[in-house]
Each structure stands twice: as C-alpha cells, then as structure tokens.
Amino acid sequence: MSKVAVVTGANQGIGFGVVRRLCKEHPTWTVYGTSRSAANGEEARKKLEAEGLTAKYLEADLTKADTIVAMKEKLLKEHGGIDILVNNAGIAFKGAATDPYAVQAEVTLQTNVFGTHTVCEQLFPILRDGARVVILSSFMAMRALHKTKEISPSRYEVYIKNDPPMTIDAALNLMREFVSSVKAGDHAQKGWPDNSAYGTSKLANTVMARAYQQQFSSTPERDIVVNAADPGYVNTSMTSHSGNLSIDEGADTPYYLAVLPPNTPIKGQHVSKRCVVEWK
Ligand SMILES: NC(=O)c1ccc[n+]([C@@H]2O[C@H](COP(=O)([O-])OP(=O)(O)OC[C@H]3O[C@@H](n4cnc5c(N)ncnc54)[C@H](OP(=O)(O)O)[C@@H]3O)[C@@H](O)[C@H]2O)c1
C-alpha cells in the first residue's frame, strides 16, 4: 500500500538522510521533507532528484504554529491523512556558545520540545490507522536521565514511572518549570542540571514518545506506534561535522522505527542502533 510520510527538518542532516532512505526503499510512497526555508527545501529536493529520487518539500517552522497548521491543511487536502511522521527538526547551541543559560534553555526547549509538541498536536488527528511516529531523541537524553538520578532522585522517579508514564501535560509543565528555574537562577537548588538545556530537551522528547504511546494505547485496534530514536553521533551541522556516523547511518534507527511492521511490540521506547534501551 502506498503511504504518505512526513519528516521535519529534512533539508539537511539526519532528516535529509531519513527522506533519502524512505524514497530509496519505497519509491511508490509520497515522501515529504519539511524545511523552515522554502529555498533550502527546494535545494534538498533537487539534490535528491539528481540521485533519481522523488521527494516533496513543505515549509514548516516549529516555532511558528501557523506554518504547522498550513502544512496539516495541505496534507489533509492532498492525501486525507498520513502514515509516517518523523519529528526530526531540532537545535543545539554549540559548546562554545556564549549565550546565557536562560536564553539557551528557552530557545532550545521552544524548538525541541514545544515545537515538536505543536507538530504532534496538529498532525496526530490526521494519522491513519497503523501510523508510525518517531521523535528524534539522543544518547544525551539517557545521560540527562542518569544525571537527574544523582541530583534529584524524586524527579528521576517521576521520569521513570512506568504505569502509567508521565502524561504529555505533565512533561510540558516540567519543561516550563525547568525554563523558569533557569531564568530565575535557582535551577541548581531545584535539582535541574547545569548547562544542559539540550540534554534536558532530548530527555523530554523521549518522555513525550512514552506519553503519546500511552495515549494511543487506549485505541489498540488503530495500531498507532510512537517511539524515540537515538541516531548516534552523526556528522551534521549540529555536531559541527564531528560525528563519527554519516547521515545515512544516523538515519537508520529513525527509518527502522518509521517502518515498524503491524502489531510491533516496540512501542513508547527509546531506541538506539535498532535496539530498545532500558528505561532506568
Ligand atoms: N547529529 C547528532 O549527532 C545527533 C545526535 C542525537 C540526536 N540528534 C537529533 O537529530 C535531529 C537532527 O539533527 P541533525 O544533527 O541532523 O541537525 P542539523 O543538521 O542541524 O539539522 C537540523 C534540521 O532541523 C531544522 N530545524 C531547526 N530548527 C527548526 C525549526 N524551528 N523549525 C523547523 N526546522 C528546524 C534545521 O533547519 P535549518 O537547516 O533551517 O537550520 C535542519 O533542517 C535533532 O532533533 C537532533 O537533536 C542529532
């Protein structure tokens, strides 16, 4: 069956790699990448075309809700629904950035957490039965989880609670608390990590995958599955090209999760190198 896939932040890096893989392996599917600049999207489309691959590009900026709504309306009008959503778009300040921690926390969370949430809230209503959703997380998420165990055992317990896991609203509220606390300068007293806005945002991305899966578990007959993907350390702009993996290698786990077969047992998990990482 021909499917419709959407990959955010796909004009470069891992997202571009996921679009390329989907196009290569499923030439009959309609694969959309999104970019915040139309020109960059067109450049990516042409690059794929030169490789004999057909992808479409839509404009979407995670920090501008109207662009996400417009994307949803276009997808709905053209296809009536979608089958795959890879929430890949994300940002990270460079290690050498001199922006205050409060700015880094607010800006990072605005895209990685609240922007990803906007995409999910808009596109989840048009997911078709059997849809697969991937949220790009990171090995930094597990590092942040383990750090939380040291600095705030009570928050660690909230994060790893399984039955039921933290809800989306609770996760977003926790992230708002994080940003407020960093702005107020009392994050250390309140057991938040120092200088780790990115890790905190990626931990939230994994928590979001768990929480959304819990929501979909009330309609198991729909077989909609959400997982978080750790792509590894990838050679992209984000890592200033210091990653040891190519974008095609980094795209492998997100791709694997995007095409999980019907009734897969892999649900609401944090997955690295195609393997589930124990949540503890
Ligand atoms: N690279 C790694 O080693 C690594 C490791 C673990 C996890 N990840 C995760 O993998 C994902 C992709 O990372 P990457 O390394 O491929 O980064 P990248 O090369 O910097 O690409 C990021 C993509 O996200 C887009 N983006 C950023 N902010 C956006 C916004 N507000 N709205 C829409 N799109 C936006 C960028 O658009 P522009 O081109 O316009 O900037 C770009 O297309 C991220 O979620 C990242 O956290 C990466």
Summarize this structure as a short list of keywords or feature phrases:
single chain; 280 residues; Rossmann fold; 8 strands; 15% strand; binds NADP nicotinamide-adenine-dinucleotide phosphate
Textual characterization of the structure:
The N and C termini lie far apart (about 40 Å). The mean pLDDT is about 95. Helix 4 packs antiparallel against helix 7 and helix 4 (about 100-125) runs parallel beside helix 8 (about 195-215). The chain is about 50% helix and about 15% strand. The chain is globular and about 55 Å long. The protein has a domain at about 5-100 and about 115-140 and about 210-275: NAD(P)-binding Rossmann-like Domain (Rossmann fold, 3-Layer(aba) Sandwich), CATH 3.40.50.720. It is an alpha/beta fold. The longest helix has 23 residues, at about 100-125. It is built from 10 helices and 8 strands. The protein has helices at about 15-25, 40-50, 65-80, 100-125, 140-150, 155-160, 170-185, 195-215, 245-250, 250-260, and strands at about 5, 30-35, 55-60, 80-85, 125-135, 225-230, 270, 275. Bound molecules: NADP nicotinamide-adenine-dinucleotide phosphate (NAP).
Task: Write a brief caption for the model.
With 280 residues, the chain is of the alpha/beta class. β1, α1 and β2 form a beta-alpha-beta unit.
What small molecules does this complex bind?
NADP nicotinamide-adenine-dinucleotide phosphate
Strand order of the largest sheet: 3-2-1-4-5-6-7-8
Helix content: 40-55%
Architecture per CATH nomenclature, i.e. the level-2 architecture of the domain at 4-100 and 113-138 and 211-276: 3-Layer(aba) Sandwich
Counted beta strands = 8
End-to-end gap: 38 Å
How many H/I helical runs? 10
Shape designation:
globular
Radius of gyration: 18 Å
Question: Strand portion, in percent?
Answer: 5-15%
CATH class of the domain at 4-100 and 113-138 and 211-276: Alpha Beta
Q: In terms of structural class, how would the helical and strand content be classed?
A: alpha/beta
Give, in order, the helices and strands. EHEHEHEHEHHHHEHHEE
Largest sheet: 8 strands, mixed
Task: Average the pLDDT over all residues and give the rounded result.
Answer: 97
Could you please say which CATH topology of the domain at 4-100 and 113-138 and 211-276 applies here?
Answer: Rossmann fold
Chain oligomer state? single chain
